[in-house]
Amino acid sequence: MNDTKNDSTNDSITKFTPLEQHLLNDFQRDLSLSATPYADIANQLGVSEEDILKSVQSLQSRGVISRVGPVFQPNRIGVSTLAAMSVPTEDIECVARIVSAFPEVNHNYERDHKYNLWFVVTASSEEHLNIVLYEIEQHAEYPLMSLPMLDDYFIDLGFKLKWAN
Amino acid sequence: MKTVELNNQVVQLTADDRALIKAVEGGLPVVSRPYEAIANNLGCSEQEVISRLQHLIDNGAIKRYGVVVRHKELGYTANGMVVWNIPDDKVDAMGACIGDYDCVTLSYRRPRRLPDWSYNLFTMVHGRNREEVTRIVAEIVESCGLQNIEHTILFSTRRFKQRGASYTENTTTTKHKKLQLVK
What we know:
The complex is a heterodimer. By secondary structure, chain A is of the alpha+beta class. Chain A folds into two domains: 54 residues; 69 residues, Alpha-Beta Plaits (2-Layer Sandwich). Chain A is 37% helix and 21% strand. Chain A contains six helices and six strands. Chain A is elongated and about 55 Å long. By secondary structure, chain B is an alpha+beta fold. Among the domains of chain B are: 44 residues; 84 residues, Alpha-Beta Plaits (2-Layer Sandwich), CATH 3.30.70.3460. Helices cover 37% and strands 23% of the residues of chain B. The two termini of chain B are 22 Å apart. Classes of the chains: A alpha+beta, B alpha+beta. Chains A and B meet through helix 3, helix 4, strand 1, strand 2 and helix 5 of A and helix 1, helix 2, helix 3, strand 1 and helix 4 of B.
Protein backbone atom coordinates (compact mmCIF):
# COMPACT_ATOMS: atom_id res chain seq x y z
CA MET A 1 0.00 0.00 0.00
CA ASN A 2 1.41 3.43 -0.85
CA ASP A 3 -0.14 5.58 1.79
CA THR A 4 2.05 8.32 3.15
CA LYS A 5 -1.18 10.10 3.94
CA ASN A 6 -2.45 7.23 6.03
CA ASP A 7 0.76 7.07 8.02
CA SER A 8 0.16 10.53 9.40
CA THR A 9 -3.45 9.76 10.30
CA ASN A 10 -2.49 6.71 12.32
CA ASP A 11 0.13 7.43 14.89
CA SER A 12 -1.38 4.68 17.00
CA ILE A 13 -0.01 2.01 14.72
CA THR A 14 3.59 3.09 15.24
CA LYS A 15 3.52 2.90 19.02
CA PHE A 16 4.27 -0.81 19.19
CA THR A 17 7.65 -2.37 19.89
CA PRO A 18 8.97 -4.92 17.38
CA LEU A 19 8.07 -7.67 19.87
CA GLU A 20 4.51 -6.38 20.13
CA GLN A 21 4.22 -6.21 16.34
CA HIS A 22 5.24 -9.86 16.11
CA LEU A 23 2.76 -10.83 18.80
CA LEU A 24 -0.04 -8.93 17.09
CA ASN A 25 0.61 -10.22 13.59
CA ASP A 26 2.16 -13.68 13.79
CA PHE A 27 0.13 -15.45 16.48
CA GLN A 28 -3.47 -14.85 15.47
CA ARG A 29 -3.94 -18.49 14.55
CA ASP A 30 -2.61 -21.96 15.29
CA LEU A 31 -1.49 -21.11 18.81
CA SER A 32 0.13 -24.26 20.17
CA LEU A 33 -1.96 -26.42 22.47
CA SER A 34 1.05 -27.31 24.57
CA ALA A 35 0.97 -26.79 28.33
CA THR A 36 3.11 -23.67 27.97
CA PRO A 37 1.88 -21.68 24.94
CA TYR A 38 3.54 -18.42 26.00
CA ALA A 39 6.93 -20.12 26.46
CA ASP A 40 6.52 -21.59 22.95
CA ILE A 41 5.96 -18.09 21.54
CA ALA A 42 9.00 -16.86 23.51
CA ASN A 43 11.15 -19.63 21.99
CA GLN A 44 10.04 -18.73 18.48
CA LEU A 45 10.84 -15.05 19.01
CA GLY A 46 14.03 -15.60 20.99
CA VAL A 47 12.89 -13.79 24.14
CA SER A 48 11.97 -14.92 27.64
CA GLU A 49 8.55 -16.23 28.63
CA GLU A 50 8.37 -13.35 31.10
CA ASP A 51 8.75 -10.86 28.21
CA ILE A 52 5.81 -12.47 26.41
CA LEU A 53 3.57 -12.55 29.49
CA LYS A 54 4.31 -8.87 30.16
CA SER A 55 3.71 -7.85 26.54
CA VAL A 56 0.42 -9.73 26.33
CA GLN A 57 -0.75 -8.19 29.60
CA SER A 58 0.24 -4.74 28.39
CA LEU A 59 -1.50 -5.12 25.01
CA GLN A 60 -4.58 -6.42 26.78
CA SER A 61 -4.70 -3.58 29.29
CA ARG A 62 -4.28 -1.05 26.44
CA GLY A 63 -7.27 -2.65 24.71
CA VAL A 64 -5.28 -3.57 21.60
CA ILE A 65 -5.98 -7.26 21.92
CA SER A 66 -9.26 -8.44 23.32
CA ARG A 67 -7.88 -11.84 24.34
CA VAL A 68 -5.66 -14.76 23.51
CA GLY A 69 -7.79 -17.81 22.92
CA PRO A 70 -10.47 -19.34 20.76
CA VAL A 71 -12.71 -17.71 18.17
CA PHE A 72 -15.82 -19.86 17.88
CA GLN A 73 -17.49 -20.64 14.57
CA PRO A 74 -20.86 -18.84 14.52
CA ASN A 75 -23.88 -21.12 14.87
CA ARG A 76 -21.77 -24.14 15.73
CA ILE A 77 -21.87 -24.20 19.51
CA GLY A 78 -24.49 -21.53 20.01
CA VAL A 79 -26.91 -19.69 17.77
CA SER A 80 -26.58 -16.10 16.70
CA THR A 81 -28.07 -13.52 14.43
CA LEU A 82 -27.34 -10.03 13.13
CA ALA A 83 -30.14 -7.64 14.01
CA ALA A 84 -30.89 -4.21 12.60
CA MET A 85 -33.13 -1.40 13.77
CA SER A 86 -34.13 1.90 12.28
CA VAL A 87 -34.11 4.39 15.15
CA PRO A 88 -34.61 8.19 15.04
CA THR A 89 -31.34 10.01 15.80
CA GLU A 90 -32.68 11.56 19.00
CA ASP A 91 -33.48 8.10 20.41
CA ILE A 92 -30.44 6.15 19.30
CA GLU A 93 -28.27 6.55 22.39
CA CYS A 94 -31.07 5.47 24.65
CA VAL A 95 -32.00 2.49 22.47
CA ALA A 96 -28.33 1.52 22.08
CA ARG A 97 -27.95 1.48 25.85
CA ILE A 98 -31.00 -0.77 26.23
CA VAL A 99 -29.69 -3.15 23.56
CA SER A 100 -26.12 -3.25 24.92
CA ALA A 101 -27.39 -4.07 28.40
CA PHE A 102 -28.41 -7.56 27.21
CA PRO A 103 -25.54 -9.96 27.98
CA GLU A 104 -26.35 -11.87 24.77
CA VAL A 105 -25.46 -8.78 22.67
CA ASN A 106 -21.74 -8.85 21.92
CA HIS A 107 -21.39 -6.25 19.15
CA ASN A 108 -23.48 -3.12 18.81
CA TYR A 109 -22.67 -0.42 16.25
CA GLU A 110 -24.28 2.71 14.89
CA ARG A 111 -23.99 2.89 11.09
CA ASP A 112 -24.91 5.63 8.65
CA HIS A 113 -27.97 4.14 6.96
CA LYS A 114 -31.75 4.14 7.36
CA TYR A 115 -31.12 1.00 9.43
CA ASN A 116 -28.73 2.70 11.81
CA LEU A 117 -28.33 0.30 14.75
CA TRP A 118 -26.68 -3.07 14.05
CA PHE A 119 -25.99 -5.67 16.70
CA VAL A 120 -25.11 -9.34 17.04
CA VAL A 121 -27.10 -11.51 19.43
CA THR A 122 -25.64 -14.87 20.52
CA ALA A 123 -27.46 -17.41 22.65
CA SER A 124 -27.12 -21.01 23.74
CA SER A 125 -30.22 -22.25 21.88
CA GLU A 126 -32.77 -21.13 19.30
CA GLU A 127 -35.41 -20.81 22.00
CA HIS A 128 -33.14 -18.61 24.10
CA LEU A 129 -32.29 -16.48 21.04
CA ASN A 130 -35.96 -15.94 20.17
CA ILE A 131 -36.73 -14.88 23.74
CA VAL A 132 -33.88 -12.37 23.69
CA LEU A 133 -34.96 -10.90 20.33
CA TYR A 134 -38.50 -10.57 21.65
CA GLU A 135 -37.29 -8.94 24.86
CA ILE A 136 -35.10 -6.48 22.96
CA GLU A 137 -38.03 -5.40 20.80
CA GLN A 138 -40.24 -5.01 23.86
CA HIS A 139 -37.71 -2.88 25.73
CA ALA A 140 -36.40 -0.86 22.79
CA GLU A 141 -39.91 -0.27 21.38
CA TYR A 142 -38.70 -0.43 17.80
CA PRO A 143 -39.13 -3.34 15.37
CA LEU A 144 -36.07 -5.49 14.80
CA MET A 145 -34.97 -7.13 11.55
CA SER A 146 -33.19 -10.44 12.18
CA LEU A 147 -30.65 -11.60 9.55
CA PRO A 148 -29.15 -14.92 10.67
CA MET A 149 -26.11 -16.24 8.85
CA LEU A 150 -26.96 -18.83 6.19
CA ASP A 151 -23.49 -19.46 4.74
CA ASP A 152 -19.99 -18.49 5.83
CA TYR A 153 -17.54 -17.84 2.97
CA PHE A 154 -14.76 -16.46 5.09
CA ILE A 155 -11.77 -18.56 6.08
CA ASP A 156 -10.45 -16.89 9.21
CA LEU A 157 -6.68 -16.74 9.09
CA GLY A 158 -6.46 -13.69 11.31
CA PHE A 159 -6.07 -10.08 10.26
CA LYS A 160 -2.91 -9.07 8.42
CA LEU A 161 -1.70 -5.78 9.89
CA LYS A 162 0.18 -3.35 7.73
CA TRP A 163 2.66 -1.46 9.86
CA ALA A 164 3.17 2.18 9.00
CA ASN A 165 6.88 2.14 9.81
CA MET B 1 -41.24 -11.59 14.21
CA LYS B 2 -40.35 -14.49 11.97
CA THR B 3 -38.89 -17.64 13.40
CA VAL B 4 -35.12 -17.48 13.27
CA GLU B 5 -33.57 -19.36 10.39
CA LEU B 6 -30.47 -21.26 11.33
CA ASN B 7 -27.64 -23.33 10.02
CA ASN B 8 -28.26 -26.86 11.18
CA GLN B 9 -24.70 -27.62 12.09
CA VAL B 10 -24.93 -27.02 15.79
CA VAL B 11 -22.47 -29.19 17.71
CA GLN B 12 -24.06 -31.00 20.63
CA LEU B 13 -22.16 -30.07 23.78
CA THR B 14 -21.83 -31.88 27.07
CA ALA B 15 -22.02 -30.04 30.38
CA ASP B 16 -18.23 -30.41 30.61
CA ASP B 17 -17.82 -28.77 27.20
CA ARG B 18 -20.02 -25.86 28.28
CA ALA B 19 -18.02 -25.36 31.46
CA LEU B 20 -14.81 -25.38 29.44
CA ILE B 21 -16.17 -22.91 26.88
CA LYS B 22 -17.27 -20.61 29.68
CA ALA B 23 -13.74 -20.79 31.10
CA VAL B 24 -11.98 -19.92 27.82
CA GLU B 25 -14.39 -17.67 25.89
CA GLY B 26 -13.03 -14.57 27.63
CA GLY B 27 -9.46 -15.60 26.77
CA LEU B 28 -6.76 -17.77 28.31
CA PRO B 29 -5.22 -16.68 31.61
CA VAL B 30 -1.94 -14.88 30.92
CA VAL B 31 0.20 -17.18 33.07
CA SER B 32 2.90 -19.70 32.33
CA ARG B 33 0.54 -22.71 32.42
CA PRO B 34 -2.89 -21.37 31.42
CA TYR B 35 -4.50 -24.80 30.94
CA GLU B 36 -3.40 -25.88 34.39
CA ALA B 37 -5.04 -22.74 35.82
CA ILE B 38 -8.27 -23.53 33.94
CA ALA B 39 -8.09 -27.18 35.02
CA ASN B 40 -7.77 -26.19 38.66
CA ASN B 41 -10.93 -24.10 38.39
CA LEU B 42 -12.86 -26.85 36.60
CA GLY B 43 -11.59 -29.67 38.77
CA CYS B 44 -10.11 -31.73 35.96
CA SER B 45 -6.61 -32.38 34.63
CA GLU B 46 -4.52 -30.04 32.49
CA GLN B 47 -4.28 -32.72 29.79
CA GLU B 48 -8.07 -33.09 29.77
CA VAL B 49 -8.50 -29.33 29.13
CA ILE B 50 -6.00 -29.47 26.27
CA SER B 51 -7.51 -32.52 24.60
CA ARG B 52 -11.06 -31.18 24.87
CA LEU B 53 -9.94 -27.90 23.26
CA GLN B 54 -8.21 -29.90 20.53
CA HIS B 55 -11.50 -31.74 19.97
CA LEU B 56 -13.38 -28.42 19.61
CA ILE B 57 -10.80 -27.30 17.05
CA ASP B 58 -11.05 -30.61 15.16
CA ASN B 59 -14.85 -30.58 14.96
CA GLY B 60 -14.90 -26.99 13.71
CA ALA B 61 -16.48 -25.40 16.78
CA ILE B 62 -13.34 -23.28 17.15
CA LYS B 63 -12.46 -21.63 13.83
CA ARG B 64 -9.33 -19.79 14.97
CA TYR B 65 -7.11 -20.07 18.03
CA GLY B 66 -4.68 -17.31 18.95
CA VAL B 67 -4.36 -13.57 19.50
CA VAL B 68 -7.62 -11.70 18.91
CA VAL B 69 -6.92 -8.09 17.97
CA ARG B 70 -9.20 -5.08 18.19
CA HIS B 71 -9.05 -3.27 14.85
CA LYS B 72 -10.00 0.18 16.05
CA GLU B 73 -7.24 0.30 18.68
CA LEU B 74 -4.75 -0.75 16.00
CA GLY B 75 -5.52 2.28 13.89
CA TYR B 76 -8.09 0.62 11.62
CA THR B 77 -10.68 3.13 12.69
CA ALA B 78 -12.96 2.84 9.66
CA ASN B 79 -15.00 -0.31 9.35
CA GLY B 80 -17.41 -0.60 6.50
CA MET B 81 -20.09 -3.25 6.41
CA VAL B 82 -20.47 -3.76 2.68
CA VAL B 83 -23.76 -5.35 1.68
CA TRP B 84 -24.37 -6.81 -1.78
CA ASN B 85 -27.47 -7.91 -3.69
CA ILE B 86 -26.14 -10.92 -5.60
CA PRO B 87 -28.20 -13.35 -7.70
CA ASP B 88 -28.68 -16.55 -5.67
CA ASP B 89 -26.84 -18.73 -8.19
CA LYS B 90 -23.72 -16.53 -8.02
CA VAL B 91 -23.54 -15.74 -4.33
CA ASP B 92 -21.34 -18.72 -3.32
CA ALA B 93 -18.57 -17.89 -5.80
CA MET B 94 -18.69 -14.13 -5.25
CA GLY B 95 -18.86 -14.52 -1.47
CA ALA B 96 -15.73 -16.68 -1.52
CA CYS B 97 -13.90 -14.22 -3.78
CA ILE B 98 -14.62 -11.26 -1.48
CA GLY B 99 -13.86 -13.31 1.65
CA ASP B 100 -10.35 -13.95 0.29
CA TYR B 101 -9.25 -10.31 0.61
CA ASP B 102 -6.73 -9.32 3.31
CA CYS B 103 -8.75 -6.43 4.71
CA VAL B 104 -12.00 -8.40 4.75
CA THR B 105 -12.90 -10.12 8.03
CA LEU B 106 -16.37 -11.50 7.30
CA SER B 107 -18.26 -12.80 4.30
CA TYR B 108 -21.68 -14.15 5.21
CA ARG B 109 -24.79 -14.93 3.23
CA ARG B 110 -27.92 -13.78 5.04
CA PRO B 111 -31.60 -13.76 4.06
CA ARG B 112 -33.22 -10.90 2.16
CA ARG B 113 -36.18 -9.24 3.90
CA LEU B 114 -38.16 -7.86 0.98
CA PRO B 115 -39.28 -5.19 0.41
CA ASP B 116 -37.27 -3.56 3.21
CA TRP B 117 -33.92 -5.27 2.67
CA SER B 118 -32.67 -6.71 -0.62
CA TYR B 119 -29.00 -7.42 0.23
CA ASN B 120 -28.00 -11.07 0.72
CA LEU B 121 -24.21 -10.92 1.19
CA PHE B 122 -22.52 -9.17 4.12
CA THR B 123 -18.79 -8.44 4.16
CA MET B 124 -16.73 -6.42 6.63
CA VAL B 125 -13.91 -4.27 5.28
CA HIS B 126 -11.40 -2.61 7.63
CA GLY B 127 -9.33 0.43 6.74
CA ARG B 128 -7.48 3.27 8.40
CA ASN B 129 -10.03 5.74 7.10
CA ARG B 130 -13.16 5.81 4.93
CA GLU B 131 -11.21 6.62 1.77
CA GLU B 132 -9.12 3.50 2.19
CA VAL B 133 -12.22 1.33 2.72
CA THR B 134 -13.87 2.85 -0.34
CA ARG B 135 -10.73 2.20 -2.40
CA ILE B 136 -10.55 -1.43 -1.25
CA VAL B 137 -14.21 -1.95 -2.13
CA ALA B 138 -13.55 -0.55 -5.63
CA GLU B 139 -10.64 -3.01 -5.99
CA ILE B 140 -12.86 -5.89 -4.90
CA VAL B 141 -15.56 -4.87 -7.40
CA GLU B 142 -12.98 -4.96 -10.20
CA SER B 143 -11.22 -8.18 -9.32
CA CYS B 144 -14.30 -10.22 -8.36
CA GLY B 145 -16.29 -8.98 -11.36
CA LEU B 146 -19.02 -7.24 -9.36
CA GLN B 147 -19.50 -4.22 -11.65
CA ASN B 148 -23.20 -4.96 -12.15
CA ILE B 149 -23.93 -5.92 -8.56
CA GLU B 150 -25.84 -3.44 -6.41
CA HIS B 151 -23.96 -2.72 -3.17
CA THR B 152 -23.72 -0.14 -0.43
CA ILE B 153 -21.20 0.59 2.35
CA LEU B 154 -22.53 1.11 5.86
CA PHE B 155 -19.77 2.84 7.79
CA SER B 156 -19.80 2.56 11.55
CA THR B 157 -20.19 5.91 13.24
CA ARG B 158 -20.16 4.74 16.85
CA ARG B 159 -19.26 1.54 18.65
CA PHE B 160 -21.56 0.98 21.60
CA LYS B 161 -20.35 -2.50 22.52
CA GLN B 162 -17.69 -4.97 21.37
CA ARG B 163 -16.63 -8.15 23.09
CA GLY B 164 -16.29 -11.82 22.33
CA ALA B 165 -19.55 -13.71 22.08
CA SER B 166 -20.75 -15.40 25.22
CA TYR B 167 -22.29 -18.81 24.66
CA THR B 168 -23.03 -19.53 28.26
CA GLU B 169 -25.05 -16.58 29.62
CA ASN B 170 -28.61 -17.33 30.62
CA THR B 171 -29.56 -14.09 32.27
CA THR B 172 -32.27 -12.99 29.89
CA THR B 173 -34.02 -16.35 29.82
CA THR B 174 -34.12 -16.33 33.59
CA LYS B 175 -35.39 -12.78 33.70
CA HIS B 176 -38.05 -13.62 31.13
CA LYS B 177 -39.26 -16.58 33.15
CA LYS B 178 -39.48 -14.39 36.23
CA LEU B 179 -41.47 -11.82 34.29
CA GLN B 180 -43.91 -14.48 33.21
CA LEU B 181 -44.32 -15.66 36.77
CA VAL B 182 -45.13 -12.12 37.89
CA LYS B 183 -47.80 -11.80 35.20
